[in-house]
Amino acid sequence: MTYFISDIHLGLPNYSKSLEREKLLVKFLDEIKNTAEKIYFVGDIFDFWWEYKSVVPKGNIRFLGKIAELSDSGIEIHFFTGNHDVWIKDYLKHELNIEIHTKEFTTEISGKKFFIAHGDGLGKGDFSYKLLKIAFTSKFLQWCFSRLHPNLAFFIATNWSHKRRKKEKYYEFKGLEKEILVQFAIENQKKQNFDYYIFGHRHFPMKIDISEHSSVINIGDWIINFTFIEFDGESCKLKTYKNSQIENFEQNLTAKYKVEIF
User: Fold this and answer.
1) Domain count of the fold of the chain
2) Are 49 and 88 in contact (CB under 8 A)?
3) What's the CA gap between 28 and 30, in Å, rounded?
4) Tell me, what CATH number does 146's domain have?
5) What are the C-alpha distances in Å from 65 to residues 22, 28, 39, 78, 255?
6) Cα angle at 242 between 181 and 120, to 5 degrees?
7) What distance in Å separates the CA atoms of residue 147 and residue 149, rounded to the nearest whole number?
8) Over the stretch 23-63, which tens digit does the pLDDT of each residue have?
9) CA dihedral sign, ordered 233, 111, 104, 57
10) Which of 18, 73, 92, 262 could disulfide-pair with 249, CB 3.0 to 4.6 Å?
11) Domain coverage including residue 220
12) Which of 39, 94, 100, 27 minimizes the C-alpha distance to 66?
């Protein structure tokens, strides 16, 4: 089995609430470890992450320990940077022996072609965020930020992240024409065929069939929906982990393309 999960935002909104979700996530990972061959963490796993040369954010030790265990057991772990943890560097790669992806990644699994990305910055529009991303990935600005004491730097960054989340609107279907990642996939499909486009970022679990053999799947999140994707070698299924039980979704919406919103 291959699993995809995204937008956990560990650290949000506070220590106690984050710890509850972290423990649930670790329990879930422990339950799938005997069937998992690969696990893709598709961005925004942490609500904030910044690495100094010898300092990283404290906390999340249960999650990091579980990833180390899974990696050591031979499970292939892929970790994508999102817009909240874009500053992940080489600490996790070296400590946990996992693959870090800072941009979109294409691969083939059991004969199916996958396009995998967190999703931020892809497609047309969202120019304000794209400018912000340029700033975040600027080596010079990162160097400037690293001159701050960790206590001050982490305080500024976490408060900014929390306030920004309150302004962002997730958890709603915008309509196919306004779903930027869906439109990106439709255009990209004209250049190269993929069976599945897997995205995080939107927090809105949704599967859209854009052709007879190609689907766009928004993974959802682990703040409200607790959703993930399970690929069994034949097809991808969106599932949720509720009350420590894995369940399927079955809610349909008729639109220009076949849409399943979960």
Assistant:
1) 1
2) yes
3) 5
4) 3.60.21.10
5) 11, 14, 15, 16, 43
6) 20
7) 7
8) 999 999 999 999 999 999 998 899 877 777 777 778 889 99
9) positive
10) 262
11) 2-261
12) 27
